[in-house]
Amino acid sequence: MTVPDRVPPQFPPDHYLNRELSWLEFNARVLEEAADPSNPWLERLKFLAIFSSNLDEFFEIRVAGLQQQVYAGVEPQDYGADGMAPAEQLAAIDRRAHELVAEQYRILNDEVLPGLATGGVERVRLDDLTEAERRHVDTLFRASIAPVLTPLAIDPGHPFPHVHNKSLNIALVVKRRNGGQKARRHFAVVQVPAVLDRVVIVSTHGEGRVRFVLLEDIIARHLGELFGGLRVLSHTVFRVARNTDLTIEEEDAEDLLEMIEESLRQRRRSDPVRLEISADADESFVEMLTGAHDLEPRDVYRVPGPIDLTALIALHRLDGFPALKDEPLVPRVAPPFAQGRDLFDVIRSQDVLLHLPYESFGSVVDFIERAADDPQVLAIKQTLYRTSGASPIISALARAAQNGKQVTALIELKARMDEQNNITWARTLEQAGVHVVYGIMGLKTHCKAALVVRREGDGIRRYVHLSTGNYNPTTARVYTDLGLFTANPDMGEDASALFNLLTGYAEGYRWKKLVVAPVGLREHIIGLIEREQRNAREGRAARIIVKMNALVEPSVIDALYRASQAGVAIDLVVRGICCLRPGLPGVSETVRVTSIVDKYLEHSRVFYFENDGNPEVFLASADWMPRNFWRRIETLFPIEDAALQARIVGDILQPILSDTVKVRELSCDGTYRRRTPGEGEAPLRSQIALQHLAREAARESTDVRPPFVPIVRRPAPRTPQGEPAPA
Prior knowledge:
Number of domains: 3
Distance between the termini: 54 Å
CATH architecture of the largest domain: 2-Layer Sandwich
Mean pLDDT: 89
Helix content: 25-40%
Number of helices: 19
CATH class of the largest domain: Alpha Beta
Shape: globular
Structural class: alpha/beta
CATH superfamily of the largest domain: Polyphosphate kinase middle domain
């Protein structure tokens, strides 16, 4: 498959925001949720953990790539539409990331930990343990922790040990007790075992109080026992993040699965990119660790608290403490499936839209499980990008193969950070008799599709599920996604062609409904935008509403700029990266960009085009990024049922556009400002509104939707600086 060349940007560099700095501002919005006093304490802690996890991946992938270019003296590969060189980007990242990490720990130490303690979840210092708690900790160390530890000396006979990516470690200085004044000091390292729980509960008092310590504090207290005969002079905790962006030469691979396994082994020894170390660490530790890992001073992050706050998410899973958490969501069964009718009968009679997490992912699991056991089903084909542990879908596919059906699973082995999981699932399915394939060389398979082929009284019928999100029951409870069940013959034929493309060498098929990357998605999107541009110039109704995770591709941004210059009203709800500058005089004055960060991760991709009063609505697996257009297999699929269009536009997009609680608006200078309700306007939190809608729909005996009503809101006027104009 030939991938087209990228299209260069058409506007000056200062018309685009930098991709990496825009991402940091997204993570700043995550941090705002940790600081938001309206969120319960354990939810605020959860956002601190998410911030840490996000930042880890940013350094492992994005910063690592920039460092390779700068530190290795490699010729810059891509300056980006904004024109910033890699060295400039690293300097800007350094400033902003250090600011954000400092704010993260201020929130933790000054607000969240004291708030949790007041609510009954208290971190205690080892010096403040009760006698009973101290005995418990000492017994735990000797019985369960010490046997797992390996003290590692550093001297001419013991070189600095390899530190695994993101492993937590304790560095220390030891000295012989009877060595006198000239006794040499030595560094040593002890890894904090990842196989043990890092949050250690030392006591509970009924259901309302828990006291905990951290595993590294217990180990630090007992370091003298690990280095018998030596005196521990000082110690500190540290962690090193490494480059985890796999470079795979697929054309040279005889077995892609084996090549990726080898790449995963190499990842453990890849180049370091960041050092986190306790704020009170002696400078000698910093010098020793940066020297051992060939890091620059800017790569060091001194933190005044626990390193790697992702471990504290264990506190969010504690039983009880309802006042410290959001009320749990109970997903509702989608109304068409709630009547007890046969699932295939329902899909055959109507298209069904599923809105996660407000409606249950169980309908997707039922679809695959029903197909696995139905004697009339001949074949099942499915893409799997990320799935969960103990996945019911994996089990159903394996059972279907054992039942004699033709089962094909397209497993994307290159799904970042899920490579090992997907290798495991690939082998499990192969052993069960599933035909497992890995997609097209050089491209990631990112589309989400399932096809069931069934023999019925009037012939063979194809049932299709397409989605904006993964086949993952775990993330389906916390990600907002949309999926479509359909028995539309054209969609079924396209789905068959898609799998033929993925498993064989099929080319030249004329798609009836689907739009597929990289063979035409970008061009189709630009064509839709340009149609709105023409309509606006000719005085016809023109409107664009887009909801997605990221907007980076310059050629699409340029098309939006041209549409705005023609007067098209454009709303972009972009959760994460946005390289478009809204409110540029004469360029993007009719564009409004907002971002919602709330309890559920906004993950759905929805596209609305007014089309002169004959609106078109699409869902997709793809964001508008170069990788989605050029380097991935993606699908865009239409929602043609009028009732489902009305639901997407009126019930889903309208509350999102009207949010006044969790929405931030992007200004021309790249900063985000929180929107607040206007005078006399009631606060509206879209995720809560959508939760109420799902609850109401589940109570109804029929799924009656209102007639289609297009959104008529236009962006507010702006000042030349991009600020909303005063009323």
